[in-house]
Amino acid sequence: MNNAIEVRDLVRKFGSFTAVDHISFHIERGEVFGFLGPNGAGKTTTIKVLIGILAPTSGTCRVLGLEVPRDTARLKQSVGYMSQKFSLYEDLTAQENLTFFGSVYGLSRLALGPAIEHALARFELERFKQVQARELPTGARQRLALACAILHEPGVLFLDEPTSGMDPASRRKFWELIHVLAGQGKTVLVTTHYLDEAEYCNRLCLISQARIIAEGTPEHVRSLAKGGALSIACSPLGKCLSALLSRPDLGETSIYGGSLRLVTDDPDRARAALPGLLNQAGASLESVTPDRPTLEDVFVQLVRESNA
After folding, report:
1. 260 — phi, psi (to 5°)?
2. Which of 9, 78, 133, 245 sits a CA distance of 20 to 30 A from 18?
3. The CATH number of the domain covering residues in 3-222
4. 228-292: what CATH class?
């Protein structure tokens, strides 16, 4: 069996509220799988079902061949979980956090010491080992949370919004660590609301309002874009932006660097309308060039369609 995770027709309700609505997906062993969408879309609830914290209302879930929640006790030693809201004990040092989580995961005293030393070196935490978790820089704090989650060398790793609050450089470094782990055979399910992070995933799901709206490789999901995008060099930028915002029928406009970016269902129609529109606004058009649709563009289009 190549699938580390299999989810079929999963539903999770809280009273009358449906947090996860008939979703299905699979994740192959050694794959980095992204679960992307806005806060409240159902990402964290899905993870909590997969690790046995929540029982599914209906549907089936298997992790490493074990059915959840029936086999949760057997699964405990084979998965690691890095929580979005709680991963570390603030009053404990880095080393003390590792010691605690290693004990929780059942590492023997003989195995615990070497595992902690390896984790400190692996995640560049040696200089922080006597520092309380609350005093750690954000990047080091998140690396420590990851180290705690994999101290027992699980086969599957669940990371829930692991890069929240990180600066761009720390986020990139963290993703490099994720791919090192995947290269060592670990299966990684990672949730994020940063759509640019989808590029780091082998495959991904886009989820909105509890339902999956797209699935596949980043390139495949990007290919679902309708229409295209235009990069517009014009001046003054403020007048140009106001003019385009007055014409929502042409598409969605945003500032990108020193130019404007228009995501449109009909690039030819939009291009033809630009000279007259900007001239009427007292602005000048310098150039219009095609731009590659982003995953964010696709997500916005698909959400709009699903809500129509």
Report:
1. -110, 155
2. 78
3. 3.40.50.300
4. alpha beta
